[in-house]
Amino acid sequence: MSRKLSWLLLVLVAALAWIAPALLPDPAAQDLSASLQAPSASYWLGTDALGRNVAARLAAATQISLSLALLSALLAASLGAGLGLLAAWRHGWTERLLLALADAVLALPGLLWVLLLSALAPGRTWPLYLGLVLTAWVEFFRTTRASAATLLAGPQVQSSQLLGFGRIYIVQQHVWPALRGTLLALTALAVCNAVLAVSALGFVGIGLRPPAAELGLLMTEALPYYADAPWMLAPPVLLLLATVLALQTLGEKHGLGA
Question: Distances from the Cα of 256 to the Cαs of 66, 153, 180, 246, in angstroms?
Fold first, then answer.
């Protein structure tokens, strides 16, 4: 998939998430007399078993899934990059402690952390945020630490320090320009992984709970009616596929470069 097509898909997904909900009816509104209606002028993507508008629920689900993924990825990027820079700058026991913490987090698979934390408060969003951030920050930390350690020992940074420039200037002028492309690519991959994780948890009934609209939940709700109403299952599956492919393309090496 080309970069232009990836950006186009993400723009369309973003429009569905943050513009379409204002134009569509209430995603939770039920009309049992219109149960399992096929796509039509009144219902663009048909209705589900409770007569709810599938298009409206898809838009609401996209908004929830992307909001969770984006916020968790940004928090993980900020936390991981900040701690990585701290470890590269301070060295000593600070670096050893942070490395041990990162290794401890990696001792368990990322999705297992999310499952464990989600079990503390089923159906709530804060365990999802915490679990997703906990599993994603390590990659940012390791990448930033390794790259920043080399940069901080370089002649440009040494010259800036001799001239009396502070750490903020050094980060802005030397560290951030060198790490920007890599961190943006990692953020795209973190969003991709978070979208998949949230959908997987919703699909198995551990993430958000009904009547919330979420991509994994939409798939679960559609499965019993697949033979009679395939239009219920196709939209969330295709939307998830397009979003993941676009984010993976942008997250490849140099995918977000200038």
Answer: 19, 26, 9, 12
